[in-house]
Write a structure and sequence with these properties.
The structure is a single chain. 76% of the residues lie in helices and 0% in strands. The chain is an all-alpha fold. Helix 3 runs parallel beside helix 6, helix 3 packs antiparallel against helix 7 and helix 9 crosses helix 10. The radius of gyration is 18 Å and the shape is globular.
Amino acid sequence: MNWIGVATLYRREVQRFLAVAAQTVGGPVVSALLFLTVFGVALGRHAPALGGVSYLVFIAPGLVMMAVLQNAFANTSSSLLVAKVQGNIVDLLLAPLGPGEFLAGLALGGVTRGLVVGMLTVLAAALFVSLPLANPVLCLFYAVGGALAFSLLGVVGGLWAQKMDHQAAVTNFVIAPLTLLSGTFYAVSTLPEPFRSIAYLDPVFYLVNGFRYGITGHSEAPPLVGILVVLVVNILLGILCHRLLASGWRLRQ
């Protein structure tokens, strides 16, 4: 394992998004606060309590997880796509890094951005709502597991995309629906059939539900099922990404 190479690539990924922190970190936090204001303040007074907590407390963990997932995906997908478009992907391909080491550096950079945005979103949300903390260990597990899953998914998206329009299409038609329809703003258990069953097929639901359980103690699905989903999704995506990188699939324009 080329630890120095992995650490160097990781630092590059972190420095890349911190160089434009107002866009990559500040923007997502403000967006999450706007969602919290619109859905919580405007609708919270009329919405019933869900899971024994107020509507504002119910949606806050979902918004945090949504920010974590979307930014973890954006970091790795944009890093690969920009490198291919600008032509400096060659510098990465010539580095003494195997596919596993290359994947580790990229994925850890995406996880870092997701967690940084998530922590700042929690701190900002705490100004508007008092969040309990039922299980800190589960909160950390779902935050890291979700960030890693979407960071790996971003690797797949970045490899597939050949131009900015492709990345935007994946974000708008895959990532946004998965996160917005995962029970962030509503309780999935209140949905009529067949929408309830469809929601249970969304792996992001288990990330949002698990993180919410760690915050509020309320869960709409068995926590063990959520843990298994997170582990299986990460293993499958990790294997897929490793094989794609090892084959050099669409790494050159």
